[in-house]
Each structure stands twice: as C-alpha cells, then as structure tokens.
Specification:
215 residues; 0% strand
Length: 215
C-alpha cells in the first residue's frame, strides 16, 4: 500500500504545473449549469472536463522519457498502475466536491430550488460518468501512449453529449426510472457497484498492458 501511495504522490508532482489549468476547467461548468439551470448537467460537464485532464501524467511521462525512471524504482508495475488510478480517483473526487459546492450556490442565487435529492442525484451521476470516461481512457493511454492515445481523450466529450441528448428521451413514467427515483439508496448502491466493477476490469487491463511492456 505504501508503494501505491508513493506512485500516486509522484503523479501529483507531475501535474503540479497544470494545477491552474485543472482548476480553470471547473469554472466553465458553473456557467454551463447557470445557463441550463440544471445541476445534473453542470456536474456532468465538470466531470467530463476533469476526465480529459487525466492524460497529463501520461503526456509528461512520455515527453520527458520517464519510462526508465519508472523502471528503476523499487515499485511493481501493478502498484504503479493502481497508484495512477488512485490519483485519478482523488482528482475526480476533488472536482466532484468542488462542483457540488459551487454550482448549487450559483443556482440558488438565481432562484432555482436545489433539493438534497438533486445534489445526491448529481453526485451519483457525476461519479458514474467520470468512471465511465476514465475506465476507457487510462488503458488506452497505457496501450498507445499519450500522443497516439489522444483519441481516448474525446471519450468524455462523446459520453457527455450522448448523455445530454439521451436523458431527455427516457420517459419519466418508465417503471425503472420511477423505482430508482423513489429510492435514492438503490440508485446509489447500483452506481457504486457499477463503478467498482468497471474500475476493477479497467485496472486489470491496464496491469496486463504494463506487464507486457519492457521498461
């Protein structure tokens, strides 16, 4: 566990020059939420943007040819991979918390009625969508590198747009929608289970990709 934390801290050091850029990506979604008067879409937009920044660690590593450094560190490849996922999750949680604090304040100042259920729904939706974006991105970066793997950076955009257009198409009286809407706990448990399963599969793929590479 100690080595995993060290790997995560190394990733934090790699993205320090981009901290201002990462923080700025959380400002535009606030405007988006205000324009659409929707906390869910605003938080989803924020998680889309922050997911796109997960490629910074890969681009810095590749640009500075740090593969040799990683190769001599007394850390297993699996620990390095898990450490990077830990860093990504912490980054995502930071963005989610900031969005759930700032966006409701802005919407309430505009006269919108933001209920606790709205915040819970936005949190669950944001967490699930961030996971959906990153579980594809990270293995893609490990496999193809930061430059060739840039195509995976657009997965968050496609996912966000698809969600934005598909959500209104789901009938409000759909039995599944009604059941989930009336049971936030069920929704939360379902989202957590799906997120855990997706990350477990993604981590497994990333570890296999890393172990097949020479460093």
């Amino acid at each position: 566990m100690n080595n995993i934390l060290k790997a995560a801290k190394l990733d934090v050091a790699l993205v320090k020059p981009y901290i201002k850029t990462i923080c700025f990506t959380l400002v535009l979604p606030i405007v988006f939420a205000a324009i659409n008067r929707s906390l869910l879409t605003g938080v989803s937009f924020a998680m889309c943007f922050i997911a796109m920044t997960t490629g910074y660690t890969f681009s810095v590593t590749e640009k500075n040819s740090m593969e040799r450094l990683y190769g001599i560190l007394p850390i297993k490849k699996s620990e390095m991979v898990i450490g990077r996922y830990l860093f990504v999750l912490v980054l995502g949680m930071f963005a989610l918390v900031i969005s759930l604090i700032t966006q409701p304040i802005v919407l309430r100042s505009m006269g919108e009625n933001i209920r606790v259920l709205d915040i819970v729904s936005a949190a669950i939706g944001g967490l699930f969508m961030f996971a959906l974006y990153t579980v594809f991105q990270i293995p893609g970066y490990y496999k193809y590198g930061a430059i060739k793997g840039r195509v995976f950076m657009y997965i968050p955009v496609v996912g966000f747009l698809a969600t934005l257009f598909l959500l209104p198409q789901i009938p409000a009286d759909n039995p599944i929608v009604v059941t989930i809407a009336n049971s936030p706990i069920l929704l939360m448990l379902l989202a957590i289970v799906l997120v855990v399963v997706m990350y477990a599969v993604s981590i497994w793929f990333s570890i296999r990709i890393m172990e097949s590479k020479e460093m």
